[in-house]
Design a protein that fits this description.
Helix 4 packs parallel to helix 5 and helix 6 packs parallel to helix 7. It is built from eight helices and 33 strands. The chain is globular. The chain has an eight-stranded parallel beta barrel with strand order 26-27-28-29-30-31-32-33, surrounded by five helices. With 556 residues, the chain is α+β, with helices and mostly antiparallel strands. Helix 7 links the parallel strand 32 and strand 33. The model has no long low-confidence stretch (mean pLDDT 97). Bound molecules: (2S,3S,4S,5R)-3,4,5-trihydroxy-6-oxo-oxane-2-carboxylic acid (GCB). (2S,3S,4S,5R)-3,4,5-trihydroxy-6-oxo-oxane-2-carboxylic acid binds next to loops.
Length: 556
Amino acid sequence: MLYPKSNKYRSVYNLNGIWNFNIIDENYIPIKPLDKYQKMAVPASYNDIVAERNVRDHVGKVVYETYFSIPLMKEKIYRLRIGAASHKCDVYLNGKLIGSGINGFYPIDLLLEGLEEENRLSIVIDNRLTFQTFPTGRVVNGKQISQHDFYNFTGIHRDVLVYSMSKEYIEDIEIKTVIDGDYSKVLVNVTSNCEVSLKIKDKEGNIVSTGKPGLIAIPNHKLWSTENPYLYTLIVESQYDKYEEKFGIRKVEVKGNQFLLNDKPIYFKGFGMHEDFFIIGKGNNSAVNIRNFELLKWVNANSFRTSHYPYSEEIMNLADEYGFLVIDEVPAVGMNWWKDNFTPDRINQDSLSIHKELVRQLIARDKNHPCVVMLSVANEAGTHEEASREYFKSVINYAKTISDLPITTAEFTKYDEVCRIADMLDVICINRYYGWYTDHSDLSVVCNQMKEELQKWYSEYHKPMIVTEFGADTIEGLHACPSETFSEEFQKEYIEENCMAFDQCGFCIGEHVWNFADFKTKQGLTRVRGNRKGVFTKERQPKLAAHYLRDRWKNI
Ligand code: GCB
């Protein structure tokens, strides 16, 4: 379903705000209104809002409840859109189950039938991770165990909207652009139960083309690029409905050891990020989103990876507008627990079907975003295991049947461990911490070890490479001369050493520092107030390394 927007045929009612909230038992069903509850903000994670340890650390189910009343018209249908609720959820209207969400980073869009004058909406969320959820994890003695370090934030993380439209509505729009000299052909596919006509408006508001679903030409097109993220608007209209969808005209191609955007080689400069901020946790927040993007521009970045899950739809829209290139990642993280992960009792056929479904839903959600230039189907899976090959062959082949995007994974498997899936990827991305997790503090090994490994991969696979993670934990305000680990000087020098390696490898087409900003993690001996590898602090202020990157990236 299309993202809810209001216009003369459609109305959107925003249910964000303060809801009722409580921890609940396994078998709870919201037949009656909650009699005991506390107040909770939506959208937000509840973890850093509450003051009780047992609520913050709760592993299991919670319920959110709100009441709403909207104008009802017989000729309209009503739907509910929850941008994301982490991780699994069941949705009840007036005590009746109306649908479920299978993953914490995807929209849930449900038909609302039998609306009354006043309605009670209850969302039961389960935050437990298993081998069949993504991220993967397991619960042992009531404790959540996970392989990934980022905190298992729980809550309704994105907007909750009720929207109305006519029964003859536009359900989906798919826009594909093909550049042909000065002309562009735009292939528009509309799923609808009514006949529609199309108009294309340029950024200045002029109608540049009209037609019906199928191929439409745009003469003298302007391309979408990182320097000029030019967006057109497709207007789809029928007698009963109307929808406007923005799109850009751009071409993405992997050729030899290059990644081409509109036939020009791209060097990816940027970060792996996280949706994470004080108090709100993973709740979508426009002020934080804009601040992040302003800092990305300031530091001269041109790209980021949605490590390790799909980000909010608002962030994707902003990336189109700002002109950032996005490596869009499905939440397949944590698949490297033991020596053997891809076994029938761990990551198995059930996991595989959910993994493929999450690829499908990501493409369905993000297919019209010009910013999305590559799909990452996993972060640091156990791809050294023989059994991982069949598994990922199935995921990658499936992704290729539904999308033209280049496919990658962020690899933790070292070259010498033999990655079983590298030959199936379009770009090889590696996450490496030479001089940090190995040879800790020894800056003299960083450049050579990195260069040596990159060269080994390239000499076997002849594919372009991006280092999608490298970084050092750094406490802002901590200085040392000569540098020591955790100081701002060390982080800067560490990044510089890595960059020296990239500069000596022509096939290395990008560097994504881990991480854009400090973020909350599970508690652990190596994490003092979370992961501190941010080039920006959690308050979103630059550390010393940010100034170095700003200078470096200005000239690349
Ligand atoms: C990684 C993971 C990332 C961690 C990072 C670290 O390899 O992909 O999620 O946060 O290392 O800092 O340890």
